[in-house]
Amino acid sequence: MCGDDAAALRVVGELVRAVGGVPAVLGPLDRARQLEEVAGFAIGLAFSGVDPRSAVPSA
Q1: pLDDT, tens digit, 9 for 90 and up, residues 1-57
Q2: Which residues of 25-46 are buried (b: 16+ CB within 10 A; e: fewer)?
Q3: Quick check: is 41 in a domain?
Q4: Within a domain: residue 1?
Q5: Is residue 37 assigned to a domain?
């Protein structure tokens, strides 16, 4: 997630945790477009039958 408001990021992080996710703050709001593009890429791979983790390695 991206955002400029620390309080809002905490609230959204709590919501993500509440549904079993792991929140990750990836930068300020002006980076949201880049995050959306990466998400579209990963979703496209998944729908094509390719594991997105093969293109986006973990640290």
Answers
A1: 999 999 999 999 999 999 999 999 999 999 999 999 999 999 999 999 999 988 877
A2: eeeeeeeeeeeeeeeeebeebe
A3: yes
A4: no
A5: yes
